[in-house]
Amino acid sequence: MKIAAISDLHVLPDGSDNELLESIRQRVQEIQPDVFIIAGDISDHLSVLGDSLEALHTSDCTNLYVAGNHDIWFEDAGGPGSLEKYSHSIGGICREKGFIHLPDSPYIQENTAFVGSMGWYDYSFRREELNIPIENYEQKEFRGAVWYDVFKIDWTFTDAEATSLLNEKLEYDLKTLPKHVTQVVHVSHHLPFQELTVYRDKFPWDFHSAFMGANSTGLILEKDMRIILSISGHSHVRNRITRGNITAITVPLGYGRPNIEKIEDFVRDAVAVIEIHDNDVDVSGFATGDICAGLEYVSSRY
Ligand SMILES: [Fe+2]
Ligand SMILES: [Fe+2]
Fold first, then answer.
1. Ligand closest to the CA atom of residue 9
2. How far, in Å, from the CA of 210 to the mean position of ligand 2?
3. What is the pTM of this model?
């Protein structure tokens, strides 16, 4: 089985990313995967998410999406809130555009199941040695550094509650897989393993690392011997680790944009190709690190 995967496109809402999207679609088409996975953070505007999924939809393979935190940011013009976006709106848009929103239901191809969840964070990735009080993580602010979800997520759960709820749904999805499933690919937006997080020994980077994921999610994965691969996004530094049976990778594109003549090389790095033969996961050729380093920085936050 061949999988193509990417995340964190953070598509600009003004159409200036159209060539990038087309280049990604062409690259995926060229890879000819069985399954194409996008692990979240396309846009906080549902209209941009819909248009982007339409542009990225690849024929002759299964197209899967898992929402990211930016996708569930509420929109100012009285649109749906974060919970409604995650549990309802995004699934509807995915269906309309030929994608399966994996958190709504697992996808099964022969003996392989794809199980997805946005995942969340509970500050278990925080660096204790920074001695930042837990209240600052709860308030998502410390000495001027802000984790922007504080302004844009409007559900009433605490972060610990959100993490638990999403973990419970993940456990339910795993528990209710049909008996003939012998291997599972997990897809999330937030990180299930702390080792996937890159610390830089600098502020505010290491404060923000507390918002990358939750160890409790990784423990669920480690207990299920069917899981051989975990794909996530959110951290904009690509990473690859092995945990027991599981190969875990992060596949972000990020906020950088290359010059038009470099777009093909950039996309080649951005789209991960994973091959599964029996129980063996092959990610050779996987680009690690920040592929946007040194590029022009764009922000979709307008
Ligand atoms: Fe992102
Ligand atoms: Fe994210």
1. 1
2. 13
3. 0.97
Quote the ligand 2 centre to 50 CA distance (angstroms): 18
Q: Which of 215, 246, 252, 214 is nearest to 232 (CA)?
A: 252
Give all domains of the chain, ordered by start, each with its CATH number: 2-297 (3.60.21.10)
CB 118 within 8 Å of CB 67: yes
147 Cα to the center of ligand 1, angstroms: 12
Residues 92 and 108: their CA atoms lie apart, in Å, by 20
**Mean pLDDT, the chain cut into blocks of 10 residues (302 residues total):** 98 95 98 98 97 98 98 88 98 98 97 98 96 98 96 97 98 98 98 97 95 98 98 98 97 96 97 95 96 86 46
212, 235 in Cβ contact below 8 A? yes
Ligand 2 mean position to 101 CA, how many Å?
16
Least distant ligand from the CA of 292: 1
